[in-house]
Amino acid sequence: MFVKEGPIKRMLKEAWKGVGLRIANDNDGLLFTGRSWYMYVFREYFPKELLGAVISMTGEIPVPSMQVLYNKEEAQTELYMADPSYAVYKRALEAEAEDNAAERTDIIILDIHEWPYRIYTDSMAQVYAVPERIVEMIEPGICEPNEDYHGCFALKDGWLYWVSDYMAFGFASHTANDEVRGRGMKLKEAGIV
Q1: What per-residue string of b and e applies to 156-181 under the rule 16 or more CB within 10 Å gives b?
Q2: pTM higher than the cut 0.85
Q3: Is 167:148 a contact under the CB 8 Å cutoff?
Q4: Which end of the chain is more exposed for a tag (fewer CB within 10 A), N or C?
Q5: Rounded mean pLDDT of 19-42?
Q6: Helical (H) or strand (E) element with 49
Q7: Considering only CA atoms, which of 172, 12, 23 is closest in space to residue 91?
């Protein structure tokens, strides 16, 4: 996996304590969603330590063809994969097939709370603002020996997808603060990014 275990555990827990941690089991792998991120990992590559952390929060992993939204108070069964965006790995491969690679820049913008956002650009000259904590947790160098990291790709709807043979991670860049996105666009217009 190209995501660091500590930060992803924190994100899973934040979702569980907040809006809810959605988990879907398609028998080949597991889907996890938070407020503005999605992650899919093929079952055979899912780290046991991370699986244990999820089970300690939720008490279970949904059975195949089941989707559940977990939070501190309850677990709510949902209509299985009703939202097409939950097909995270498929969407990541679509973004890769469109050959719209997104590149990380050296530019960081702070929002009004001084939270840092890293600017990404793509081959279509679009600009994306990604929280630095998301950027820092993605580390292609920690992939397993047989895991090929494909890169980061963007879709027109503002989602960025990082993808490998083992997993995909998606982030909705359009959820960034309007001011941060606007400043990123000004940098693009000025030819800085």
Answers
A1: eebbbbbbbebbbbbbbbeebeeebb
A2: yes
A3: no
A4: C
A5: 95
A6: helix 48-58
A7: 172
